[in-house]
Write a structure and sequence with these properties.
heterodimer; A: Cytochrome Bc1 Complex, Chain D, domain 2; B: mainly beta; four-stranded antiparallel β-sheet; 40% strand
């Protein structure tokens, strides 16, 4: 009896980890593409090239590709003030979009691997949850 | 081969069609006859504003703060209802009741998560302003269902002279279901009595299933609304898709066509429809190709500025200037850039002193001064 309960609990654990956790990178990118259409595209455009001097590019963006944690924080908390992207200065405001940690992870995985961008790392909701606002200051 | 040639021609002409600016072309004035001053600073996204009197105004900040500004000094107003922050949603417009002097009432539109479904939708509130505090808050309208989509909450507020309040709700990112269906919220302009009740002469008041508060429909995302100084008609501007932003003169019960007719295309470059007109739908008073991302709108009716009387002023989020539109008869005959590169203009209002005031992102509220 004890063994049956034990096996039941273990299987439950395995099932729920499959069902509720751990999207594959491919699944996360797909979900991120939908978030992008909804929240990001109007400024950064479907090509990811943005508008020079107004909305920074995501495609081949040194800021994005070299500062993963800052980029996560920017999406999570909003971003304001001067940043340099590909040698061009941007001084605008990106408002906090109200995305949850999983949505931030998904859209990060999408923009890190779209338009020719390539990133080996896989951003997880857990990683997003640990990024604090203070790194933007 | 023939097919290929036809296709190439097609692509060529479509590209040509898209690239063409709708007339009249935007002009840059030769001589600048104005300057500006910053009257309220330190507001990131000054979404809405309205004047209590010449020295006092209310300003909303999208992220959920309402300010009362007295002689240039801003103080936070407390007692706000809960604001749902998601995408373009947040604390939106604010308007002073036409009889504010006697009743201290104000109206607010904001994104709200009230209701059953996850997500949010646009709500209209009324409250009493006592000093820097809101009291007796009442919900007058809440669009439903909630959705986690980030787009198109609207929302602007205006009043006519017959005791009505108008407000807009965008299509909430569901263009295929909302704007053309009068039994659903979204993609509509609504009309209520000032106490929040629904006027019996609203166009769909007696239609079964219809949302009785609907005044006009077939809208995408109206974020400018004002009253024509002579006719008293409600004018709006609305964000189109890529190309096809519009100015519309509202009439009771009219369908403005979104998404069945439009001068715009999808952001991805693919067409939405090949139709720009339909006998049962209204044509825009004016449409912008390319899009300027219009937000805020006001007529100048004072004598403060030389040559600007009765011109229409619209903020451009995208090109970061104020657009002056000269209207003759029923036509826009001239368009001009004012304050080019000032920043993303969210809102345009004429103050009780007759000056034009702008809400500019990252700056605050600026006042345009004649030279």
């Amino acid at each position: 009896m004890k063994i049956t309960v034990f096996i039941y609990l273990i299987s439950l654990g395995i099932f729920s980890s499959i069902l509720f956790q751990n999207k594959t990178k491919k699944e996360s990118i797909k979900a991120g593409s939908e978030i992008y259409q909804d929240f990001c595209l109007q400024c950064h455009l479907s090509t990811g090239i943005g508008v020079s001097g107004v909305f920074p590019p995501l495609k081949a963006s040194d800021y994005l590709l070299k500062n993963t944690n800052l980029s996560i924080a920017g999406i999570k908390y909003g971003l304001k003030g001067k940043i340099i992207v590909n040698n061009e200065e941007y001084d605008g405001i990106m408002v906090r979009q109200g995305l949850d940690d999983e949505e931030v992870a998904d859209v990060m995985n999408y923009i890190l691997n779209e338009w020719g961008n390539k990133t080996a790392a896989f951003i997880t909701p857990d990683q997003v949850s640990k990024i604090s606002k203070s790194i933007l200051e | 081969m023939n097919y290929f040639l036809n296709f190439t021609c097609c692509v060529f002409f479509i590209t040509l069609g898209c690239a063409q600016e709708n007339s009249p072309a935007i002009e840059t004035p030769l001589a600048i006859k104005y300057s500006f001053e910053l009257v309220v600073d330190g507001i990131d996204i000054p979404w809405g504003m309205d004047f209590i009197n010449e020295s006092d105004l209310l300003v909303t900040e999208l992220s959920g703060t309402l300010y009362r500004v007295s002689n240039g000094i801003k103080k936070v107003v407390s007692g706000l209802p809960e604001v749902y922050l998601r995408g373009q949603g947040g604390l939106l417009d604010v308007a002073i009741h036409p009889e504010f002097k006697n009743n201290n009432l104000i109206y607010l539109t904001l994104a709200s998560s009230l209701g059953d479904n996850p997500g949010g939708n646009t709500a209209l509130y009324q409250a009493t302003l006592v000093g820097n505090n809101l009291e007796k808050i009442s919900l007058l309208y809440k669009a439903s269902p909630n959705t986690k989509k980030g787009q198109h909450f609207g929302s602007r507020i205006a009043f006519d002279e017959k005791g009505h309040i108008y407000f807009s709700v965008g299509d909430r990112g569901n263009r295929d279901q909302n704007p053309q269906d009068i039994s659903r919220d979204g993609g509509k302009v609504y009309r209520l009595n000032l106490d929040g009740s629904i006027p019996e002469d609203n166009p769909f008041f007696s239609s079964p299933k219809a949302k009785q508060a609907v005044f006009s429909y077939g809208h995408r995302n109206p974020q400018g609304m004002t009253v024509h100084p002579d006719t008293g008609a409600i004018w709006i501007n609305e964000h189109g898709p890529q190309g096809g932003d519009e100015i519309n003169k509202l009439e009771s019960g009219k369908n403005f066509g979104w998404p069945l007719i439009t001068y715009g295309i999808n952001y991805s470059g693919t067409p939405i429809t090949d139709k720009t007109s339909n006998p049962k739908m209204e044509q825009p008073f004016y449409y912008w190709v390319p899009s300027i991302a219009p937000s805020g709108m006001a007529f100048s009716t004072s004598d403060v500025y030389k040559d600007w009387k009765n011109n229409l002023f619209v903020g451009s989020l995208k090109f970061e200037y104020l657009e002056r539109l000269v209207i003759e008869g029923n036509k826009v005959v001239k368009r001009e850039k004012i304050l080019d590169k000032i920043g993303r203009i969210r809102n345009v209002k004429q103050g009780p002193d007759g000056y034009l005031y702008l809400g500019v992102e990252g700056k605050g509220i600026i006042k345009i001064l004649p030279l």
